[in-house]
Amino acid sequence: MTQWIDVCSFDDLEPNSGVCALVNNQQVAIFYFPNEDKIFAIGNYDPIGKANVLSRGMVGDIKGEPVVASPLYKQHFSLRSGQCLEQDDQVPCYSVRLYDGRVQLAEPT
Amino acid sequence: MSVKKTLVVIGNGMVGQNFLETLVTSSAYADYQVVTFCEEPRVAYDRVHLSEFFSGKSADDLSLVESGFFDKNNITLHLGDRALRIDRDNKQVVSQKGEKIAYDKVVIASGSYPFVPPMPGHDREGCLVYRTIEDLEAITKAAKNAKTGAVVGGGLLGLEAAKALTDLGLDTHVVEFAPRLMAVQLDEGGAAMLRSKIEALGVTIHTSKNTQKIVDGEHARHKMCFADGEELETDLILFSAGIRPRDDIAQESFLEIGQRGGIVIDNQCLTSDPDIYAIGECALWNNQIFGLVAPGYQMARTVVAQLEEKEAAFLGADMSTKLKLMGVDVASIGDAHAKTQGALIYTYQDGSSEIYKRIVVSADKKNLLGAVLVGDSSGYGTLLQYCLNGIELPENPDALILPSRSDESVGLGPDALPASAQICSCHDVSKGQVCEAITAGYQDIGALKSETKAATGCGGCTALLKSVLDCELDKLGFEVNTDICEHFPHTRQDLYNLVMVDEIKTFDELLTSHGRGRGCEVCRQAVGSILASYWNEYVLEKQHLGVQDTNDVYLANMQKDGTYSIVPRVTGGEISPDMLIALGEVGKKYGLYTKITGGQRIDLFGAQINQLPAIWDELIVAGFESGHAYGKSLRTVKSCVGSTWCRFGIDDSVSLAIELENRYKGLRAPHKIKMAVSGCTRECAEAQGKDIGVIATEHGWNLYVCGNGGMKPRHADLFATNLDKETLIKYIDRVLIFYVRTADRLQRTSVWMENMEGGLDYLKSVVIDDRLNICTQLEQQMDYVIETYQCEWKTTLESPEHLKRFRHFVNSDQLDEGVVFVEERGQVRPANEQEREQLVTFRPMEDA
Ligand SMILES: Cc1cc2nc3c(=O)[nH]c(=O)nc-3n(C[C@H](O)[C@H](O)[C@H](O)COP(=O)(O)OP(=O)(O)OC[C@H]3O[C@@H](n4cnc5c(N)ncnc54)[C@H](O)[C@@H]3O)c2cc1C
Ligand code: SF4
Ligand code: FES
After folding, report:
1. CB A51 to CB B525 under 8 A?
2. Which ipTM score applies to this complex?
3. Ligand 2 atom at shortest distance from the alpha carbon of B685
4. Which residues in chain B touch residue A56, judged by CB atoms under 8 angstroms apart?
5. Which fold has domain B634-787?
6. Cross-chain Cβ contact A17/B517 below 8 Å
7. Residue B724: what are its φ and ψ, rounded to 5°?
8. With 90 as the cut, is the pLDDT of residue B61 above it?
9. Do B634-787 and B5-112+245-307 have the same topology in CATH?
C-alpha cells in the first residue's frame, strides 16, 4: 500500500506557480493548476543549471504536456514524467494528492 | 600543380578592400597570389561614416576589415608602405620601404585627396582637411584651443565637416565660392531651403565668397580675406573644396592621365597598360570621376569578373544620393538640374514644415529624369526606382511629391518593379536576385541581408528590401507565422490591443477568451509584461503570479546558483555618503558580494529567498527603493556630473537624469530600457548607446533614441535637437509608450527601430507630427503609469500574505543547502563544481 507523507497545507500552494518542499531531505517542487484542479510534483534540482530552482520556473504546456520551464535556462521538464523535452535529462517525479486540506506525497518505492 | 600568378593591389581604402573581398569569394582567387600596399597606418575603414568618429566611434568601430582577413585569405599586406611606381618594363611594383614585387596584374585603388586651393596662407598651422582618421585626430586637437571654425566649401563633404565642427563645440562658418550650397546636387530652391535649415542650427553661411588669402587674425588665429573685401576671423580652417584623384603612381609609371587628372580607364577598367586596372576615386572613366563608393564597388566587381575570365563592363554609374546633413534630409536624383531638352519641372514647397521637393520629368511626362528633395526624403526610394527603371509615371506626376490627402499611397509597390530593378546600389543587388534568394529559403530580413549583401552598405535600401520580401512571401503563398506561441494565434501587438480593447486584466481571462491550453513561459511572460505596462498592478497579486518571469516572481535577479542579487535604485547615479554606508552595512551584515553595475548602481549578490525581505526592510529604512533591475522595465538613467561641477558642462545633466528616472521608474516594457544624460557633447554618459539618450546643447537638449550597447551595439538615432525640457519629456513619453505598444516580445528599442517600416522618419512622424493621431492617448497612458507607481518591495513588506512566499521551503525554515560559497578577493562567490564536492561531503547531513 502506498505510504503518503504529509507535506504542507493546500493553502501553501501558489496557483499557476510552484513551491518547494523538503521531504525526507529531498527538495521537491510542487505545482498547482487551479483551472483543472491538478497538482504535480517533481524534483527541485535542475540538472542542467545545477541548482535547486525548478519550483521557481513558469508553468504551462507544450503540445498538451504539462511542463515547467527552468528559471535558469528555460528547458522544459514534463510534470508527468520529469523528462526534459530538449535533452536527455530527467528529474524525479512524485505522486501527489490532496487529502483533507493537506498536500501529501507518495513515499518513493 | 599550376603556379599562381601575382596580383598587386595598390591602396587599401574602401574600394581596394571591397575588391579583395569580392576576389576571395570568386573563382579567380585560386589563380592569384595577392599582395596589397596600404599607405595609411591602418587597414581600410569606412570613410562614408567617418563623421561618426566625432560621435564616439573609434577607428576600430569604423574598420571594414574583419580581424584575421588577410591571414585567413593568405593575402600579403604591406601596412604603412606606399607603392612608388610600377616598373612596367621589368614588371615590378616598387615601394617606399624598398619592396620589389614581381607582378602579373596590378589593380590601382589609390582613391583621392582633398583639394586645397593654393591661396597664400593655405598651409598655416590650423588649416586642415577632412579625409582620414589622422585628419580627424588633428581636427580634434586643434579644436581644443579654438572657439571658431570655418569650412571652405559648401558641398556635401563641407557640410559634413561643418557638422563635425559644431559637434566639437565651435562657432561654425561655411564659406562657399558658388552662390548656393551643394551646387552639384541641388537646384536653387532646394539649396535655399537647406541653407535656412542649417542656419537655424547656428551655422553661419557665406556664399559667393572667393577666399584670396589667409593671414594672422586680430581676435582669432586666422583672418580669411575675400575678393569682395570682406573678412572672417577664425581659429581653425577646414578645406573641403573638392577632391582630386591620387594619380601620382600612374604618372610615375607613365600611364595615361586625364587632362585634369585621373587615371584613364576603359569600360573594362583597364588603364593604358593591359595588365593594370584602376578602380575607385582615382579612375577617370569617360572623363568622369566618381566620388561615391557604389560606383567604385561596381568597378571592383567588373575587374574581378575579368580575372575570372567572364565578360563584364563598367558603363558609368548613377550618382543619385540620399543623405542626412546636420540632421536635414537631402536627396538628389539623376538630372536634378533639368539639363535634358524639354524637361518639365514640378516643385512643391511647404514653408511651414520646411520641405522642398522638385521633380524633373521628360517632355512627354512619361519618365522621371531627376529629383531634389530637402527636408523630407522619404520618397527617395520610389522616385529612384521610377528614374532608374524607366517606369511610366502616373498621369499626374506631381502626385509623387504632393502630400497625400487621402490614405492612398502613391508609393511604388515592389510588384511594379521589373526583375532587373536595382534594389541595393551599394552592392548592386537586383530585385531578381533578391527574389531568387527568397525562393531559396532566405525568408527573413537578416538571412536575406547576409545572403545577398543587400542593405549591408549604406543601409538606404533596407525599407525597400523589406517590402520586396513581404510582397514575395505573400505571393509565394507563405503565411508568415507571427503567432507568439502555440497558445495564442496572435502577435504580441495583437495581444496588447486585445488587452486594451477588451479591458482584460488577467492572463486567465485572455487565455479563456483568445487562447488555448495552459499557456507557456513565452506567452505568460509576454502577457505578464503587457498587463503590467497597461494596468500597472502589483505584480505579485495571486492572479498575476503565474505570468511573472524568473526574476519578477521574487522581485530580485536570480543568479546561476539560484541565489539572488539586489539592486536598489540610485537615481541618476547620485548617492550620498550616508546611503553608501547604509548599503555597505547591509552587504556586510548579510555577507553579500558587492559590485558596481554598468548603470551606476550597486549590486548585492548572494542572498537567499528567505533573506530578501529582511534585507529590503533595512534598505527601505535607509531610504532606498526598488531598482526594478529584475523587471523588463526602466533600469537606470545614467548621467555625467554635468555643469554643476564639470568645467565643460553646458547643462545640469544630473538633475535631468534624476527627474527622468523618477518619472519613468517602474514602467514595464517589452524589454529593459536604459537611458542616459550627458552635460555636453563630450558625452561622458554614453547616451548615444542607450534606448533613450539626452545630450545638452547650447540651445537645449538633443534627444537620441534606440541605441544599444551590449550584444549588438547600435548607435542611437538623433531624433530631435535643441528641445526645451517640456518638449523633451513629451517626446520621450510618446516614444516609450509607442514602443511598449508595438514592439515584439523581448525586443529592445534598437531592434524595434531596425524592423520598423519607414524607420526613424516614421517614428518621427508618429511622435512629432502625430500622424496616427494617438499622441494624446500615449501621453495619457504614461501619466497613468506614473500615477500608479509603487515601490514593489514596500508593497510586499506591508503584506504578510505576500511575504509568506519568501522562503525556500513551504514546510521548513531551512536555507537551500545547495548554495555553497567560497571566498575570493575578500568576498563570497558561488563555489564551482569541484570546490562544492569537497565542501559538501564534509558537511553533516541533517534529517528532515
Ligand atoms: C567625410 C566623407 C564622407 C563621405 N560620404 C560619402 C557618402 O555618404 N556616400 C558615398 O558614396 N561616398 C562618400 N564618401 C566618398 C567615399 O568615401 C569614397 O568614394 C571612397 O572612400 C573611395 O574609395 P577608394 O578606395 O577609391 O579611395 P580611398 O578610400 O581614399 O582609399 C584609397 C587608399 O589608397 C591609399 N593609397 C593611395 N596611393 C597609394 C599608394 N601609392 N600606395 C599605397 N596606398 C596608396 C590611400 O592612402 C587610401 O588609404 C565620403 C568621403 C568622405 C571623406
Ligand atoms: S559630458 Fe558631462 S562630464 Fe563629460 S565633459 Fe560634458 S558635462 Fe563634463
Ligand atoms: S543601397 Fe546602400 S546598402 Fe543598399
Report:
1. no
2. 0.95
3. 1
4. 550, 553-554, 558, 562
5. Sulfite Reductase Hemoprotein; domain 1 (3.30.413)
6. no
7. -80, 170
8. no
9. no
536627396: which residue's cell?
B331
Q: Which amino acid is at B654?
A: V
Under 8 Å between Cβ of B471 and B415: yes
Considering only B13-27, B443-457, B818-832, which range has the smallest mean pLDDT? Answer: B443-457
Per CATH, the number for A4-104 is 2.102.10.10
| Reported CATH class of domain B5-112+245-307 | alpha beta
Q: How far apart are CA B40 and CA B99, in angstroms?
A: 16
Whether the CB of B489 is below 8 Å from some CB of chain A: the reply is no
CB atoms A58 and B554 under 8 Å: no
- CA pair distance B694, B701, nearest whole angstrom: 6
Task: Determine which helix (DSSP H) or strand (DSSP E) holds B777, and give its type and residue range.
Answer: helix B775-787
Distance B144 CA to ligand 2 centre (A): 14
pTM of the full predicted structure?
0.54
**CA dist list (Å): B98 to B7, B81, B84, B94, B101:** 18, 9, 9, 7, 10
Q: Which of B681, B777, B779, B783 is nearest to B722 (CA)?
A: B681
- How far lies B618's CA from each of B274, B576, B621, B813, in Å? 82, 17, 5, 21
Range B710-739 average pLDDT: 93
A52-66, B159-173, B313-327, range with the lowest pLDDT: B313-327
Domain boundaries, chain B: 5-112+245-307, 127-241, 492-545, 634-787
What DSSP assignment string belongs to A1-70?
-PPEEEEEEGGGS-BTEEEEEEETTEEEEEEEETTTTEEEEEESEETTTTEE-GGGSEEEEETTEEEEE-
pLDDT band, residue B413 (cuts 50/70/90): low
Quick check: A103 and A13 in contact, CB under 8 A? yes
- Distance between CA B34 and CA B762 in Å, rounded? 46
Return d(Cα B175, Cα B27) in angstroms, integer. Answer: 50
Using the Cβ of A47 and the Cβ atoms of chain B, whether some distance falls under 8 Å is answered with no
Atom of ligand 1 minimally distant from the CA of B160: 1
In Å, what is the CA distance from A55 to each residue of A6, A21, A43, B545, B801? Answer: 18, 9, 9, 13, 19
- Round to whole Å and give the CA distance between B840 and B65: 51
The answer to whether B187 and B194 are in contact (CB under 8 A) is no
Cell of B347: 516643385
User: A48: which 3 cell numbers?
Assistant: 542542467
The beta-carbon neighbor of B562 closest among A15, A35, A53 is: A53
C-alpha of residue B432 to centroid of ligand 3, in Å: 16
- Taking the C-alpha atoms of residue B813 and residue B610, their distance in angstroms, rounded to an integer, is 8
Q: At B353, is the pLDDT very low, low, confident or very high (cuts 50, 70, 90)?
A: low
Burial class (CB in 10 A: 0-12, 13-18, 19+), B117: middle
Chain B residues 805-844 with CB within 8 Å of chain A: 805, 808-812, 814, 816, 818, 833
In whole angstroms, give the CA distance from residue B260 to residue B313: 24
Sign of CA dihedral B153, B155, B157, B159: positive
- B817-839 b/e (C-beta count within 10 Å ≥ 16 → b): ebbbbeeeeeebebbeeeebeee
More confident: B19 or B188: B19
Contact assessment for residue B397 and residue B346, using Cβ atoms and an 8 Å cutoff: yes
Local confidence band at B414 (pLDDT 50, 70, 90 cut-offs):
confident
Q: Which three cell numbers stand for residue B634?
A: 526602466
For domain B127-241, give the fold. Answer: FAD/NAD(P)-binding domain (3.50.50)
B630/A84 Cα distance (integer angstroms): 27
Convert the pLDDT of each residue in B391-407 to its tens digit.
888 877 887 777 654 43
Q: How far apart, in whole angstroms, are the C-alpha atoms of residue B722 and residue B711?
A: 31
